[in-house]
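Q: Start with the shorter request: fold the first protein.
A: Done. Sequence, then structure:
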Amino acid sequence: MHEFAVVGMGITGLSSAIRLSEYGYNVVMLGDEKSASTACAGIITLQLEDLRDIILVKESIKIINELIRDSSLDEVGVTGRGFISVEDPIEAEESAELLKKAGVEFKQFNVGDALQIWPWLVLNKDEVVTLTIDDVSVEADKFIRFLIRKAVEKGVRIEKKWVKEIVYGERHRLVLSQSGEIQAEVVVLCLGAWTRVFLSKYGVSIPVAVLRIPAYRFRVSSRIISLADEVYESYWRPGVDGTIVGGGYHAEIVDDPLLFFQKPPDRFRVDAEKLLRLRLSSRAELVEEWSGPISITPDLDPIIDNLPGYDNVFFIDGLRGYGLMRGVALGYLLADIVSQRRGLDSIEEYRLSRFSNIF
């Protein structure tokens, strides 16, 4: 018997479980180490297009810094700090205004000054480079494994088993896919792209679409800083062993969970290589490629709510590929909600009811 059962071992589930354990609760976490979080590109940047998102990432970075304070960068999977964005003058002006509103320190450079600092970049006349220094880049699978160990250190019980169904009652029973069951007073569903299918078994519909996003690892001769190319639309971060990870802004709609991690189409790889050559002066050799799922809502904001018709069952979904960035802060927020430190009325902007006109 547990006070809280967190289902899903991605970034949001781990953050929620860690926070609940810090509060002193008896927490069990269920799921698989291979999640959408482990398949993401591994960039945690403040340079986003929405003020609320930037503030969430600020909080996530603050929490991450605290969690990794006593660990080596290699143990955590951190491959770099700082982030640059290549923009046209109008975009750069808009970015500066947003970062100022969010209280984020940043600098902007013209082409000449930027190439003095980052000589491996290829830049066009009049482009502007925006730098933020608090951003973090990680090898995502290694970072998630670190957080699992951190959760165990804090007292979270880990069960690497899928939940087949939930039998609701005064004490909810989580029936496991292999055998056995777990009982908990409160269930927290952090299933990401699997949420829609899981909830449909209980007659609950949520307005999310699931996309499959490709990522690529190239071996290069230059040591880079993480960057977004807002002109040609690609993103890249430093990896391990002389590699970089990233890709173009490509996506495919996918409905079958069995296809979430399928190899990306060749046309996306060809395009990603072309985009990389537009910004990187050194040669690049493809090392590996993969895909991972994201879920996205009509208004691009996440959903955080209790499950309609079921007491003490909560869920979060719709992080639209920004899970690694916003998920830590949202996980802590979710922990406060499910432990009744904050009421659901404090997050009305995230609740499912905002889509009532869709149903």
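Q: Next, the second protein, separately.
A: Sequence, then structure:
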Amino acid sequence: MHSKIERNDGKFIRWLTRTSFFVFFFLQLASPGFAQETRKVRMAYSAFSVAFLNVFIAKDAGLFKKHGIDVELIQMAGPLPIAALSAGEIDYLTGFTTGLVAASQGAPLKGVMVTLRKPPFYLVSEPSVQKIEDLAGKRLGVDRIGSLQHLVARLLLKMKGVNPEKVIFTQTGSVSNTVTSLAQGALSAALLSGPHNVVMAQKGYRQIATADELPMSFPTSGLVIHEAKLKADSSRIKTIMRVMLDSIAFSQRESRWMIDYVKDKWKLEPKVAETVYTQWLSTLSADGKINLKDLQEYFDLAYAAKQIPAPVQVASVTDYTLLDQVLAGK
């Protein structure tokens, strides 16, 4: 048992060493004055998507400022945010699933809060595809083979009685590439996040399945931190959690503000923005949690489908202690 842990730790350390060099220069480009901005909280998100809408509104609606936090949001994808958080170059990672997978492989990280109980993912097809069974033998676009999108697409197909092995999964690299490929006819269908699913539906494409149909809960976004900060920086972590909970309450309360915000942020028509907002609202986790049993079921499925390289023991990489204190008013 110990030798396996040591091998995992060694593998992670070697990977971190290789990646940290690139992280340093990425962060310098993102914020040239980094050395002088030590009071800032630095938070990473992976894509310009409604999956991270609660983070965007927390900043733009002044909720971070209300709690005395000067936040810097940094878009980082791939292995960069894991390496940056592990090395202490950023303070928070919002990609919850990504963080827990890395933690299971030896990264010193803990998932402490969930903001979406299910990802806002939608299976959208070209007009000629009448039903999900028609995708057999056709190309289906996802951002990356082995990603959360890829797993959700496979689960949706299987749930609807379609063998995922009979569908040709195509890696596009980004949401914008996926949308372009679908619009140009290079794909017969794609797994899209909001607002792209609504925009494409307005153009005549079909929404044939949604992640909300899946029986288990599993997160896209939340808060992942360096485990060393759980005690050393618990006060600030709890403040960030209060900001996130405030953003959830704000989103539910201020519907008109939210619709206008989504409209302006993604340059949408008012009715499209309202649909995007309504769909996103249904995915929120009101108390910042997902049952650990549900989380374990998701990661077990991901491992069985070979979407992740190693099993994830959710209880060992998730810690709701500080969140429970915040919810109790402490």
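Q: Describe the second briefly.
A: The chain has two domains: 2-118+217-327, 121-213. The first helix runs from residue 2 to 30.
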